[in-house]
């Protein structure tokens, strides 16, 4: 089984803990990216695969192209060449259908310092801000109640009042909230850009513990400039 590969690029891709039976894999194959109007590739032949319900880590020095890769995975820009796709596997471990593109709407992304982008004055509004409206108010309310509760429980925010001002939360809780916002719709792939940046040691330990817990349920890719 391929574990990780990084080709012709200063970016390193690493996976932790493989499930014994893989049903889906997110893959990037020979991805190259050259910004429009420029001569040089930022990414050259980056390939890796990430099994469902696992945590992968992409690390590289500043300027190595991590943010560029993250934007490609989130569908915010398109590879110049290569592909990003999901491969499904049967119980026998063999691919059971053709690879499918990774739909951008199924990718959740938490950017660096997400708390800087909080817009609401209470936790509830922050979580539901920007949700796609469904037909019928009742449907929307049911959807909200169910998914919101699950997301809040997942990240350990259930003890926090939904009326609380997000800006008044501690650093670690602000990161939990940023995660809850993405988890409401259960993304196929959750990407976290430098999730520990700017946190004190205690908040870092909390977020690491939370990610260990979440990877049992979700496919997570962490992008970082170091491994500490
Ligand atoms: N649109 C663009 N046009 C030209 N060069 C670009 C463009 N976008 C990014 N770059 C360059 O590509 C390189 C990789 O950028 P990127 O932001 O992906 O790196 P990074 O690894 O995320 O860096 P950091 O850790 O500092 O955020 C940098 O040298 C950057 O200046």
UniProtKB/TrEMBL annotation:
Matches recorded under SUPFAM superfamilies = P-loop containing nucleoside triphosphate hydrolases
Which UniProt keywords are listed? Answer: ATP-binding, Nucleotide-binding, Transport
Molecular function in Gene Ontology: ATP binding; ATP hydrolysis activity; ATPase-coupled transmembrane transporter activity
GO cellular component assignments: chloroplast envelope; membrane
Which InterPro entries is this protein grouped with? AAA+_ATPase, ABC_transporter-like_ATP-bd, ABC_transpr_CbiO/EcfA_su, ECF_ABC_transporter_ATP-bd, P-loop_NTPase
Indicate the segments forming the ABC transporter domain, all copies: 26-227
Q: What is this protein called?
A: ABC transporter domain-containing protein
Q: What organism is recorded for this protein?
A: Acer yangbiense
């Amino acid at each position: 089984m391929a574990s990780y590969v990084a080709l012709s690029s200063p970016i390193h891709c690493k996976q932790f803990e493989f499930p014994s039976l893989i049903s889906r894999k997110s893959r990037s194959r020979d991805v190259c990216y050259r910004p429009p109007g420029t001569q040089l590739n930022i990414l050259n032949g980056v390939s890796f695969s990430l099994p469902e319900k696992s945590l992968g880590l992409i690390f590289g020095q500043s300027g190595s192209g991590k943010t560029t890769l993250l934007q490609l995975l989130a569908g915010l820009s398109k590879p110049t060449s290569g592909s990003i796709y999901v491969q499904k596997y049967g119980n026998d471990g063999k691919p059971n259908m053709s690879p499918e593109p990774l739909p951008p709407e199924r990718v959740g992304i938490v950017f660096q310092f997400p708390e800087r982008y909080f817009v609401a004055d209470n936790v509830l509004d922050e979580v539901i801000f920007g949700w796609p409206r469904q037909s019928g108010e009742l449907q929307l309310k049911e959807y909200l109640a169910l998914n919101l509760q699950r997301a809040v429980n997942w990240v350990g925010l259930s003890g926090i009042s939904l009326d609380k001002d997000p800006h008044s939360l501690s650093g670690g809780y602000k990161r939990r909230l940023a995660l809850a916002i993405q988890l409401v719709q259960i993304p196929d792939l959750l990407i976290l850009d430098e999730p520990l940046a700017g946190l004190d040691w205690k908040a870092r330990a909390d977020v690491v513990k939370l990610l260990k817990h979440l990877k049992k349920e979700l496919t997570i890719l962490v992008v970082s400039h170091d491994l500490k």
